Amino acid sequence: MIAYINGILSDISADSIVVDVSGIGWQVFVSGQVLDSLPSIGEKIKIYTWLQVREDAMALFGFLTKEDLKLFKLLLGVSGIGPKGALAILSVMAADDLRFAILGDDAKTIAKTPGVGIKTAKRLILELKDKVSIEETLGQAAADEKPVQPEAGSSSVKAEAVMALTALGYSSSEAWKVLSKITAAEGMGVEELLKQALKNMATI
Prior knowledge:
- 47% of the residues lie in helices and 18% in strands.
- The chain is α+β, with helices and mostly antiparallel strands.
- It has a five-stranded mixed β-barrel.
- Helix 4 (95-103) runs antiparallel to helix 7 (134-145), helix 4 crosses helix 9 (172-180) and helix 7 (134-145) crosses helix 9.
- The longest helix is centred in the last third of the chain and has 14 residues, at 154-167.
């Protein structure tokens, strides 16, 4: 198993990159999200990888963070989704957006991925919902914004706020996304959280 590749980015194509490691070029298939976040050619890059081994070929799939690689592996566990399909989903949706869609039963958003129908999206949610925790998702989103962990008990308050926002017409994934950017202060209730969320809705 190749855990990661650390080298020089030497080439970029529509669906893959080449990383030069001591004179050997490793082709790594990546998502559109990764392509948008790459350094310039000639600069150093570290990419976490998953190796697909078939009778007729081997292929490396790469990600810039361990968290994205973990989510890719979870997608591979869904019946009917292979490496290319999982990569397609992560090309259309950022990892956090996919987690929010799973938590919010938002099959329509996931089904926007080419080649992924509504039935596959619903199956994905069904099979992964118990593997994507509210606390982990909110904590990861907060860490992306600032080094602050959510207050104890805040996830249950946010879950209630999600229900209220969906009743107002927002999708579940939109609700989770905007609430993840709010660090719930101790004692903040659902009503106060909703007011702050509605102010921030324009930013998602």
